[in-house]
UniProtKB/TrEMBL annotation:
Transmembrane segments: none annotated. Signal peptide: none annotated. Residues 23-59 form the HTH cro/C1-type domain. It comes from Anaerocolumna aminovalerica. This is Helix-turn-helix domain-containing protein.
Amino acid sequence: MYENFKKCIVELGTTLYRVVKDIEVAYATLSNWKLGKTTPKVATLKKAAPYLNMSLEELIWEGGE
């Protein structure tokens, strides 16, 4: 899931820092998600998906293209 998130950030030409500021999520939250220490809350995903111009399903899908 994090890989989809990161890929979309790159495609948008923005930074992780900008995204966490815009969707009002702590940077540490996404850092822990990236490291596999936690999984994102549904509320966080619901904020992130539209920001990244994707559906919630697309964001969480790990099956590849």
